[in-house]
Amino acid sequence: MTKTISQQELEQYLWGAAVLLRGVIDPGEYKSIIFPLMFFKRISDVYDEEYREAFEESGGDKDYAEFVENHRFQVPMGVHWEDVRNVSTDIGKAIKDAMAEIERVNPDKLSGIFGDTNWTNKNRLTDKILIDLIEHFSAINLSLKNVPQDEFGTGYEYLIKKFADDSGHTAAEFYTNRTVVRLMSMIVNPKTGESIYDPTCGSGGMLLNAALLAKENGQEYRNISLYGQEINIITSAIARMNMFLHGFEDFHIERGDTLSNPVFVENDRVKQFDMVLANPPYSIKKWNQKAWQHDPWGRNIYGTPPQGCADYAFFQHIISSLKEDTGRCAILWPHGVLFRDAEMDMRSKLIEDDLVDCVIGLGPNLFYNSPMDSCIVVCSKNKPDERKGKILFIGAYDQIIKDKTQSFLSEEHVSNIYKWYSDCEEVSGRTKIAALEQIRENKHVINVALYVRPELSEENKKEEKNIEEVIAEWKNSSQLLKESYKSLSDVLKEVIN
Fold first, then answer.
1. Using CA atoms, how far apart are residues 136 and 160, in angstroms rounded to an integer?
2. Tell me, what CATH number does 342's domain have?
3. Residue among 214, 187, 191, 210 nearest 421 (CA)
4. Model confidence over 95-111: pLDDT tens digits?
5. H/E/C letters for each residue in 71-93?
6. Residues 146 and 251 both lie in one domain
7. Which of 166, 183, 203 is the last residue of a domain?
8. Range list of H helices, 58-148
């Protein structure tokens, strides 16, 4: 195919691979099969494209066309997509061997990128299923000319969301609501030459959205350094594929448990970054609380969270990962982190260090497969003078479009909330700027509803007025009753005397 395919055609084509697996493979496993095959096909087609361009440029010199310098990735003879396509039996073994060889000859970039799928398990992946998938992907040339980087990256993101919608409880592992991610990226405002970190990066969407926002804003985005850690092996591999497919090469995605073994470490402490974007897994119960008490990387700056909830372990890790002069973060949380008694001591220390810049209360169902309300907590290691000693609270519960499976923010909602944040002014029924003294009076509870009271409609105002009148009448009646009782008491005393 020589012409560029449309975005809709690409998305239908990509989702068509998942349709082939319907009723055969659990939806939660689609990603571990389809993404590696898709990436394998992309690498092979781009290699061919680069070969043809170098061949023409050199006037037909085959050796020149094969030079390492002319290719993003090496695809050795015998392990190209077309080589695997020509295999008729033991397809899974052919796929496995080809992917292993491509990883071996591209150790710096592609080591482990295809994940750990068991391609040779014929009870799960028969030769027929794999042949159908290979033929499906072979229908379109995924070269850069035919499917440009931006378009392919968008298609990849589409597939990630579709898998999230289709896979139920596993979705939150690798997908965070993109409309919320855009708002968070706008708030931290990434700039050229800076570093962005996500300690629980999933498929890398937060990192990519932040970097692409810099591009959208006219910044030189290719020198923004992207760092992410992800505990799940296939999800971390998907994140790395995601980076390459969006045209990013200056990234560091590592696998591992962020709490027990942070990968990015410098001088016996966790590495520090200009900004952190995160949607940590909430309320983890199985984590090493005992080790946290003597954390070798010094992240327990505010204390030890309860065993049944590791939220403030992630919170302290994020704060420890911020640079002292430029560090800022936006974290998507359930509301519990704002008021739970068990974390009050840690929360109060965080607030007293004047790190909390803003708390944004969002509506329900923005997390995958959960109706919980969510909030964004924005922190800064270097607040502007006008924001020091204060916290901005934004009530944005109504800024939401409700859907059957998951709610989202419209462009107008994102724009509204960002304006309230950047203006940092009090808007009746919408925002409140609270000094630390007021927050101390509230025992360091920073639940938005405690500070921002929504404006009432005229009908509700009348209803509230009626209630106030009833209360006033009740108070007045109570006072009259007390006075009557006192008069009666005085009369009785005189009679008795």
1. 19
2. 3.40.50.150
3. 187
4. 999 999 999 999 988 99
5. CCCCCCCCCCHHHHHCCCCCHHH
6. no
7. 166
8. 62-66, 81-85, 91-105, 107-110, 127-138
- Give 110-164 pLDDT, tens digit per residue: 999 998 899 999 999 999 999 999 999 999 999 999 998 888 888 888 888 888 7
- Residue 378: in which H helix or E strand, if any? strand 373-380
Give the Å distances, CA to CA, from 233 to 196, 203, 318, 371.
Answer: 21, 11, 22, 28
Residue found by looking up tokens 């020509």 in the block: 86
- Of residues 90, 75, 87, the one with CA closest to residue 39: 75
Q: How many domains does the chain have?
A: 2
Residues 150 and 279 in one domain: no
- Rounded Cα gap, residues 226 and 174, in angstroms: 17
Ranges of beta strands (E only) in 217-310 are 225-230, 251-255, 265-266, 269-270, 275-278
Residue pair 246/222 in contact by the 8 Å Cβ criterion: no
Alpha-helical runs (H) found in 225-324: 233-245, 289-293, 311-320
- Type of residue at 35: F
